[in-house]
Every structure is written in C-alpha cells, then in structure tokens.
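User: Let's play a game. I give you a shape written as tokens, and you guess the letters that built it. Ready? Here's round one.
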C-alpha cells in the first residue's frame, strides 16, 4: 500500500498506468454462482437514442468555452484531460479547481489504480469517485452484448440518505452522457426497483448492502460484470454491522485483479485497513486532514458533573428547558443503550441510533426524528455522522469523544442552515483527559462551569 499526498499537482501521466479494460469477468468470481444468466441485449439498439440525445446536448458547447486560469497551489479539472461531457457538467456547477481529495485521488483513479481515501463529508469525495467512474465509462467500450440488470459500476453506501445524495450528485455530473443510473435501497418501492432492474442495462448502480443482496439472491441483479467498485463511508458500514453483507456482495463481483476498487472512510482504523487489504490490490492511500471549523452561531457550554449525576442532569436539561429536537452523543453502544433506556423511563420521547440498530429501523427512526415525532435522538459517533437535519436545537455530549475531530462533527449537527444552535458537554473525571485535545484542535477554550443548581435539585 502506498501513501500519497493529496496536494500533488494534477497530471494524467504522473501516476502509474494499469490496464483499464478488464477481460470478460463473468464466472470468474470466488463465489459459487447462484445468478441465472442475464438477458443480453443489442447495445446498439438500446443505447443509440441515448447517445444521440447526449450528442445533441453537447452540440452547442465547446471545451474552449470553459476557461480556468492556472493558480499556484491549486489543481484544475482541466489538468486531468477529462471527457467533454463531464467537463461541461463540471463547468455548469461552477467547479473550477479540485478539492484536495479530488486532486489527490483522481491522480490515480483515472488510471485504474485502486484507492483508499480518508475524507470527511463535505470534502468533495463523492464527486471524486463519480468523476473517476464516469471518465472510465466514457472512455471504455461498452461490453459486447451488455446484460440487463448487470451494472458496470457499483457504489455501496450504508444508508438510504447517502445513496440518494450520491445519485443526486451523479445525475448532475452525467447529464450529458448516455448512461443509465439506478439506485436500490430499503424503505422504498421494492417492485418499482425490481422492474427497473429487469427493464434495461445499467451503467451505474448505487445501493445499500441489504437491498442489493435481496435483489441478488432473487437473481434480479448480476454483479459479475462490475468493472469499478466504490465503498463509501466504510467505517459506518463497519459500525452498523454491514460488513458480512458487503463481503457477500464483493464475492459476487469479479476478483480484485479484474476490477478497480475505491474505498473511502472518515477514519483509518485497523479493521478498515484489514478490509482494504482484502478488497484492493496495490492501492494508493490518500488522506485529507480535517478542516476544523466550529460555527460562530453555535453556543458551546461545558458542565462539570460527576459520572453518577450525568443521567439526572440530562433529564433535567431536557425537561426544564423543554427541548424538543435534541441529539445526545455517547461514546459506546452500551452507554448509548443505557442513556436511551433511562430517558424512556423518565417519560421522554427518545430513540437510539447505533450499530446494533437494524437498517430498516434506523431509517424509520431518522424520519420520525426529522418529522418531530421523536424529540431526543441518542447516537454513537459513527451512526450519527452524516445526519443532516436542519432544525436540531441542541447537541449534548454525554461523554466527550476520544477523538477531538468527533467533537467538531457532533456539534455540527446543530446550528445548520444559519440557525442558532447550542452544544452542551458533560465533563466528568474521564472526560477531563479529552478536553485539552479538543481545545487544541478548535484553537479555543471551552469554559467549564458547574450546572445551575436548579438542574441538579429534585422537584419539591
């Protein structure tokens, strides 16, 4: 595995080139085949109208109309010699220069090299792997007799929300291409998704693991033709218990020597690196330092409190201040479960998000919280990452996180879309050890005070 700086200058010729076009991989996967031979269609007939529409849409645009001057320390999309349909979509989005994860990863992924990328949400990583996929699809010939229900590129993501966001970004970038995009996720119309899989060939499939396995077991999707595989937010899939499903999916794809694999994660734990070693071949490793930013519109408070008084204080804050849209973060699953049970006993409308919560229930919980049917959401860091709900008024840290970056991500769940937000951290004996790291990362002091007396006093 090779480390790479994300600030390298962009040049398509700077990275080692690997054979881009794989030989027909059907039947070469390590998993015994349960998938019936898919129906092959005449690609010329199927794609002709799409190609004509894409060509017509590009007829009034020239790459020369998209001018971006070179700038010191920045990498332009022009530096990667991307196909014109992709450049037009990029230009219309106002993207002139690559983000660090885009510059660092495209240097390799455009040449078919496997990648392990460390990047948080909001860094442009979705566009980074979509640009690599779409460039590959545009530059490589469509397989002879493309199959119905057999995607050429597959993106796996842990949640429905993330899948739908990826699809939204993909639709923007591929609007001038002839490609077919499809998403399959739980919690949405099963029959409609099945019928779409059965209707025509798919170029790009974006899916959650559970629903994809369901369709695969029923022979509605054939993964033997996958040429590019992306695993997004692999750490969340690990925390949410999806890795056994992901392993089954990957075994149904061609061997790693016959496909390109990209894995993205917000953290590089040993578990993640072990999985990457199983699923990739000679990967480049690109890491993006987290940009620390605590919004000015978030009031940050820290209460000194003993561990045995934390639950009492939490309940009193929610009840006394009449809070109705609160996220509570705890470091471990068992602690998350205990906090949730204590709040329920106190009569508070609460639900839990952690790796032990099954996907269907997780989706329902998020929707209920978004709609105000649940007032308090207790979550672990990984399960809570990527939740974008605009009107969360308070974030409460039942424990300070061990990783200072997680503190920034936690409090960022409030104060969204310019609204005012409040974060409250409980500082017990163990939490005090985490405080200096948080203050060093955020470059600010977090004043610690004792909570107001009325929050710890019993009702008369």
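Assistant: Ready! My guess for every position:
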């Amino acid at each position: 595995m090779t480390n790479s700086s994300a600030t390298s200058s962009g040049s398509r010729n700077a990275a080692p080139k690997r054979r881009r076009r794989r030989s027909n991989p059907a039947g070469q996967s390590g998993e015994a085949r349960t998938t019936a031979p898919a129906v092959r269609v005449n690609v010329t007939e199927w794609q002709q109208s799409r190609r004509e529409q894409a060509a017509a849409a590009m007829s009034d645009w020239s790459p020369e109309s998209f001018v971006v001057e070179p700038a010191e320390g920045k990498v332009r999309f022009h530096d990667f010699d991307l196909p014109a349909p992709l450049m037009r979509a990029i230009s219309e989005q106002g993207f002139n220069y690559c983000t660090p994860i885009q510059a660092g990863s495209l240097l390799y992924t455009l040449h078919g090299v496997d990648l392990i990328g460390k990047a948080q949400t909001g860094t442009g990583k979705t566009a980074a792997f979509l640009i690599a996929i779409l460039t590959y699809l545009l530059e490589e010939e469509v397989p002879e007799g493309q199959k119905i229900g057999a995607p050429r590129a597959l993106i796996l993501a842990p949640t429905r929300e993330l899948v739908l966001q990826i699809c939204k970004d993909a639709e923007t970038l591929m609007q001038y291409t002839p490609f077919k995009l499809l998403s399959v996720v739980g919690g949405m119309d099963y029959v409609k998704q099945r019928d779409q899989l059965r209707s025509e060939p798919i170029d790009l499939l974006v899916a959650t693991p559970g629903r994809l396995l369901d369709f695969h077991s029923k022979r509605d999707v054939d993964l033997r033709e996958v040429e590019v595989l992306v695993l997004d937010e692999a750490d969340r899939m690990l925390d949410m218990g999806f890795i056994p499903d992901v392993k089954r999916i990957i075994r149904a794809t061609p061997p790693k020597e016959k496909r390109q694999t990209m894995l993205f994660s917000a953290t590089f734990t040993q578990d993640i690196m072990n999985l990457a070693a199983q699923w990739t071949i000679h990967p480049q490793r690109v890491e993006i330092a987290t940009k620390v930013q605590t919004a000015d519109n978030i009031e940050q408070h820290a209460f000194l409190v003993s561990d045995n008084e934390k639950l009492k204080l939490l309940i009193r804050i929610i009840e006394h201040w009449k809070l109705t849209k609160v996220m509570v973060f705890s470091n471990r699953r068992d602690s998350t479960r205990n906090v949730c049970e204590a709040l329920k006993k106190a009569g508070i409308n609460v639900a839990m998000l952690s790796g032990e919560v099954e996907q269907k229930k997780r989706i329902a919980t998020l929707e209920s919280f978004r709609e105000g049917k649940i007032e308090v959401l207790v979550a672990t860091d990984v399960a809570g990452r990527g939740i974008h709900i605009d009107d969360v008024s308070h974030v409460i840290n039942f424990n300070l996180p061990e990783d200072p970056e997680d503190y920034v991500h936690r409090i960022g769940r409030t104060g969204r879309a310019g609204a005012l937000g409040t974060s409250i951290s409980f500082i017990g004996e163990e939490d005090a050890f985490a405080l200096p790291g948080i203050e060093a990362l955020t470059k600010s002091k977090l004043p610690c005070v004792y909570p107001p007396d009325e929050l710890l006093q019993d009702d008369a």
